[in-house]
Amino acid sequence: MKKILPILIFALLIACSVKQKAADGEKGKDGTSSVPEITQQDIKISMEYLASDELAGRATGTEGIEKAAVFIENYFKKNNIKSYYETYRDDFEFKNSRSSNPEEVIKGFNIIGVVEGNDPKLKNEFIILGGHYDHIGFGKEVNGDKIANGANDDASGTIAAMEFGKYFAKSKTNKRSILITLYSAEEMGLRGSGHLAERLKAEGLNAYTMINFEMIGVPRASDKSMAYMSGYERSNFAETLNKYADEEVVGFFPKAKEFNLFMRSDNFPFFKELNMPAHAISTFDFTNFDYYHHVDDEADKMDYGHMASFINKMIPALEGMMNAPTKEVALKDE
To answer: Is 0.85 topped by the overall pTM?
Structure first.
């Protein structure tokens, strides 16, 4: 028995090690993983296409944004993210008041996917995650380059939402349902998110919270929180996410209020129409990236280690909020 006991202990330790590696997203001996991995390489592959010259800056109404939409739709299909409507597209049109021809009608489309919750009751409540996949098209020429590729703005946020969709579609760890919502015409005045928010309100969606991922491709200084949330003081959203992340992933950024960022991004229409906690989360703080609306906002300037770290840190934060038995996140009286 004395000889057998050390062998049993050793076998138990090996089994625990294999199980823990699987829980951390690493493959066990059988080649399977209990949860999907969020990797730098997967993020980079999506970024290098969405921010490529082939898409010519992804301006709404152009061939480039159509290519981006098809790429996202194929990503959703491949990763079992279902279409929320009859197709993935939520079509809309509007007159472009910023055009030299104000009567010009622009046709746009949001891309909407859904990951159904696994709880019979809570699945009727929806968490909305999103980002805008359009950009400005062309910018001021620099060294012969006119294409504003929009890697940080906002292919980065788009990819974050896509990765969350992939994760939850595979892990099936969300009790509440998730809408993955990617908007066009943000650069033309929040047209896409505005249209979708109005549509969801008219349809009576039981929406709980919304997060818009806006420019998360570059890290902040080491003495700052990893990310910040616009409208931080309007709800207890940040503190709830940080509780489940077990660290301050989302902090307060004074300039967000000074610059009125809460009302300048795609979260605002959802707050306005659905009267719920709806915020933008960003890691771009106006000091750590020089290429906002610039032709050098390119894929090779993104920090993929940072992006993977941010997305992975947000997963337990989102899971905790999504799976809580009651609605913990609420608006505060201003």
So the answer is: yes
